[in-house]
Amino acid sequence: MGRFKRRQSNSVPGLNLASMPDLIFTVLFFFMLVTHMRDVDPKVHYDVPQGTELTKEVGKTGLVYIFIGKPVDAQGRIVSDETRIQMGDRYVTVAEIGNEIAKERNEMSEDDRQHLTVTIRADRDTEMGIINDVKQELRKAGALNINYSAEKRIKKESVKQKI
After folding, report:
1. 35 to 30, 32, 72, 132, 140: CA distances (angstroms)
2. Pairing of strands 146-148, 117-122
3. C-alpha dihedral over 42, 44, 45, 49, to 10 degrees?
4. Residue 87: helix, strand or coil by DSSP?
5. Which of 101, 96, 67, 98 is nearest to 83 (CA)?
6. CB-based contact 141:97 (threshold 8 Å)
7. Would you tell me how many other CB atoms lie within 10 Å of the CB of residue 123?
């Protein structure tokens, strides 16, 4: 009988990359579905106030955003201490808010017009007089559904020590 010799090679077999394009396109498709693209880039700096009784509005249509805060440059640095109001991609005055709401309403579908909701994202240091003026202009424009953005306040529980 003859002896059988085993071939021993020290090389590692090559990696099969045939399914790599499928994986890449699957991951790309996943990220395209779950990524939310921002419609408007804020041109003002705002730290939203804190609240305790908050609800999250998800999937609402017919939203118009109003940002109130201090103006910033392209790098995010605060330019001045003057409070500015931003709707869309431009600064507006309180008197122009009604016209901007009318423009936004004309661009919406009929169903979205009926559910028009204005979301105010104001800096926590904004004077209440400015927010009140904005609310009055929204009332004149017929935008009666208003949301205020805030972040959840973390309640600090008092710790009692036992002696």
Report:
1. 9, 6, 26, 35, 36
2. parallel
3. -80
4. strand
5. 67
6. yes
7. 18
Distance (Å, rounded) from C-alpha 67 to C-alpha 119?
8
Residue 121 has pLDDT above 60, yes or no: yes
pLDDT at 72 over 50: yes
Q: How far apart are CA 4 and CA 1, in angstroms?
A: 9
Q: What DSSP line would sit under 120-149, residue for residue?
A: EEE-TTS-HHHHHHHHHHHHHHT---EEE-
Residues 110-127: what's their mean pLDDT?
A: 88
What's the predicted TM-score (pTM) here? 0.66
> What is the pLDDT averaged over residues 53-76?
81
Is 114 in a helix, a strand, or coil?
A: helix
What is the DSSP secondary structure assignment for residue 19, as one 8-state letter? T
Spatial neighbors of 101 by CB under 8 A, at least 6 apart, are 64, 116, 118, 138, 141, 142, 143
Q: Is residue 94 a contact partner of residue 131, using CB atoms and an 8 Å limit?
A: no
d(CA 46, CA 121): 7
